[in-house]
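Rotation project, supervised by the postdoc (A.L.). Task for the rotation student: set up a whole-complex structure prediction and record inputs and outputs verbatim in this book. Inputs entered:
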Amino acid sequence: MTNPPASPAAAGLLSLVGAGPGARDLLTLRAMQRLQQADTVFYDRLVDDEVLELAPPSARRVFVGKHVGAHSWPQDKINAVIVAEALKGRRVVRLKSGDPGIFGRVAEELAAARAAGIEAEVVPGVTAACAAAAANGISLTERGVSDTLVLTTARCRAGDPLPDCTRHAKPGTTMVFYMAVRQADRLRDGLLGQGMPPTAPVTVAVDVSKPGARTLFCDLAALPQTLAQHGITGVATIIVTYPKAQTQRLAAVP
Amino acid sequence: MTNPPASPAAAGLLSLVGAGPGARDLLTLRAMQRLQQADTVFYDRLVDDEVLELAPPSARRVFVGKHVGAHSWPQDKINAVIVAEALKGRRVVRLKSGDPGIFGRVAEELAAARAAGIEAEVVPGVTAACAAAAANGISLTERGVSDTLVLTTARCRAGDPLPDCTRHAKPGTTMVFYMAVRQADRLRDGLLGQGMPPTAPVTVAVDVSKPGARTLFCDLAALPQTLAQHGITGVATIIVTYPKAQTQRLAAVP
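Outputs recorded:
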């Protein structure tokens, strides 16, 4: 005889929860509730302590640290431990920085949960681009300037003459680059190569909504130097707008 | 003698607050707090009653209704009334569906506040794309499938052979179209014209997180018929993925 498969009812609940950009008050009410009811919380270094404190004192807190440029926990190991914990019948919260659906590896964790017969849900969150724009009083779309928002990463492969992440650089578009600081040189070169004006405005939001948050403004040509001058090497969101008006002006001059 | 300009300290506070997709528990804690402390709330029809109920009973609630295809309140009138209210020294909340920075006309309202010397802030929110993906257990980016997320609208101008909103249709990209239901025919044609496979998967999320929320799945070729068959005419988020794998397959066959 074989054991019956674990039924969803007996197998706990896996909640993949968007923690937002960092500040506790930028969690959603649903995220707060899931944390308050959690038996176990899996988190990584992008999540602030004051967010973790929302879980009951008795809850297990498990660090599955993973950050730009380092992979201390491979994804398949994370999948295995969160599923194993839910299979014990526990309410498991897997905290994700920002929104789980944007660079959050949520497809892999949901697939693992489904394969194990575990009930799973995703709680959306405020993604870094929105938090960075809000903190600086700028808009990610704007009439007559930008009608489209592109969220991408600058994980360019060495040797690409034109980083693939710049393929969406087109007039009327705001691009937000996640995890891109270390690629700033190649990012600038790629965007200029796509025809973006060197004067295109750039906003660099560092540690948005966290203590020590700061913002730099520069033009595209000066992006790498600006990051270097201010010693920015870690988590930052780079917002670049390729305005519509520029093209119209260019088009008017044959 | 002229009157002195209103000082920020005396002129109240204007908060442009992201209300998220609709459900009250998808508000952020900061949004809830701003509502609870509001003297006046400006809202439109995309915001649910249970969100408005968070404001004190004594708060003024002002409908500045505006929805797809109709403009009962022109933007400059909205700018004028919210600024006038803040100039009376009140704490004014301007509720925006989703995130204020994405198709929220926030630049215009902030500019009006600045011109009047009013202190203003933006409280970010969960945008419709993130809520729709979370509700359906899908990811907006996915390793090996899509490394970029594009948020745009399908407000195409009549006569455009290729709707401008399809300019970002490229392999490895997930596109989310806001306010696009009425343009579904031209949207499909434009995307196919960009080389997207007719079998590209499409998710249509209707009234996400609200009572009566539902989701349709189809392939790109069947999008207009699917919307028509289900009588979808109002607020829906259309998610289309142009997967990487497809191109690689195409590229492998000379």
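Student's summary: The two ends of chain A are 80 Å apart (CA to CA).
Supervisor addendum: Confidence is low (pLDDT under 50) at residues 1-9, 246-254 of chain A.
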